[in-house]
Design a protein that fits this description.
148 residues; alpha+beta; 6 helices; 5 strands; 58% helix
Length: 148
């Protein structure tokens, strides 16, 4: 279900961005104001573009959200403060009593479509982080650097 929700959010985001680009082009008089003159296939192009964006949106969560292991040796008493410091340094706040973190800044949350949650699980050699790929990669590298 989470995959489907992420896909729908990404589809809406893509369509809003595309609509804004087209609107700016029309207002700047770079293209004519009539949709049938902007696109080769006229109004039929709209559903073709929407279908293409839906394909991108369906694929994106598969590659945009990852689960990665961070090797952080030590006991819970030693490594949990390191984890919390790294998360705080990258703009995350802990959510509840579990190891879930969300972005602190509203702007960051908006640009990530409120899919900014990083879940952390303790494993034998450190932590397993799950969330947006670019954020998880940054956090894993920061944890690796702090624990070395």
């Amino acid at each position: 279900m989470r995959y489907f929700i992420r896909s729908v959010k990404y589809f809406v985001q893509l369509m809003v961005i595309l609509s804004l680009i087209i609107a700016v082009l029309i207002v700047a008089k770079i293209v004519p104001g009539d949709i049938s003159k902007i696109f080769v296939n006229g109004y039929n192009s709209l559903w073709q573009i929407a279908l293409l964006m839906a394909a991108f949106a369906a694929i994106y969560p598969r590659f945009g959200y990852i689960k990665r292991e961070a090797v952080v040796p030590g006991s819970d008493e030693e490594v949990l403060p390191v984890l919390r410091r790294v998360m705080e340094a990258h703009g995350y706040v802990e959510e509840g009593s579990t190891l879930c973190f969300r972005k602190k800044a509203a702007g960051d949350r908006l640009t990530r479509l409120w899919e900014d949650k990083i879940t952390v699980e303790r494993c034998a050699v450190g932590f397993v982080l799950e969330g947006i790929g670019r954020d998880v990669t940054r956090l894993v590298n920061a944890l690796r650097d702090r624990s070395a």
